[in-house]
Amino acid sequence: MTSSAAPQPVHASPSAVEPGLDAGWIARTVAVALDEDLGTAPGRDVTTQATIPASATGTADLVAREAGTVAGLVVVAETLAQSAARLGLPVPDVTFHAQDGDAVGPGTLLARLSGPTQVLLVAERTMLNLASRASGVATATAAFARELAGTGAQVLDTRKTTPGLRALDKYAVRAGGGTNKRMGLYDVAMVKDNHVVAAGSLRAAVEAVRATFPDVLVQVEADTTAQAMEALDAGADFLLLDNMPTPVLAATVAAVRERQGRDGVPEHVELEATGNLTLARAREVAGTGVDHLSVGALTHSAPILDLALDLHPAALR
């Protein structure tokens, strides 16, 4: 298929998102994805290797088929390199015409790839699977970021990510203008109802975390204003206000702000709203004065952004 994408500015790097994706993580993830497609390394692509000579070279365009925010271009070079190594062929050249985090429209040229045609086609699906997913997450996040602009509230992700792809999902959230919360169970304590039941009380749960892991922030989940006050009394750093109707949420925020700086409560307690947070409701929730809205749908329900790899016609001869 011929790409009609017009040339775009050339970028030296596929991303300006900080922090970037770890190179080791990219290499491991691409290897697993290629194993799924080709079989155990080096594997084979029975269609491509049967129909296209190893000596054939071509050019292909990575393009957006729809409007959104692109992410995941950082996997392209590694996917090409590993695909070439499996085939014993040279690594294609790649020129990036967009960066992760860019807003794109239908037909936007993201990258131009030139090299062995077999390598281009073997790498195609792995590149598209990873970049299309990341771009979908970035697009969903960007919609929330735009809706929250000027409110002072930020959109956060959650741990509701695809197993094995959390680093990519959270990178994509950053590319879309969102903020990462905790990366896992190891970096922030989250005291929820089951922890309270197991520990015997909310205070006992918070004190146990403080005693065992004094270096971590402690967040407590609250479903009511009374629970939020109890969490403040127990010494929580951060409150997760879960599934509260907007009037209850606003009242809880006001009550927490009233307690700040008194009776051992920090000068500013971080407040995060979560549960049933749709795009249509985002500004309303932000208007209650919360610092953050955490939205699991950014990573567990975002549709992919349609990306494609179009081989130039000359490569078909």
TrEMBL record:
It holds the Pfam family QRPTase_N. Pathway: Cofactor biosynthesis; NAD(+) biosynthesis; nicotinate D-ribonucleotide from quinolinate: step 1/1. Keywords: Glycosyltransferase, Pyridine nucleotide biosynthesis, Transferase. It is an enzyme of class 2 (transferase). The keyword Transferase applies. Its EC number is 2.4.2.19. GO terms for cellular component: cytoplasm. Coiled coil: none annotated. GO terms for molecular function: nicotinate-nucleotide diphosphorylase (carboxylating) activity. It comes from the Bacteria. The keyword Glycosyltransferase applies. Residues 45-135 form the Quinolinate phosphoribosyl transferase N-terminal domain. SUPFAM superfamilies: Nicotinate/Quinolinate PRTase C-terminal domain-like, Nicotinate/Quinolinate PRTase N-terminal domain-like. Residues 137-310 form the Quinolinate phosphoribosyl transferase C-terminal domain. It catalyses: nicotinate beta-D-ribonucleotide + CO2 + diphosphate = quinolinate + 5-phospho-alpha-D-ribose 1-diphosphate + 2 H(+). Involved in the catabolism of quinolinic acid (QA). Belongs to the NadC/ModD family. This is Nicotinate-nucleotide pyrophosphorylase [carboxylating]. It comes from Isoptericola dokdonensis DS-3.
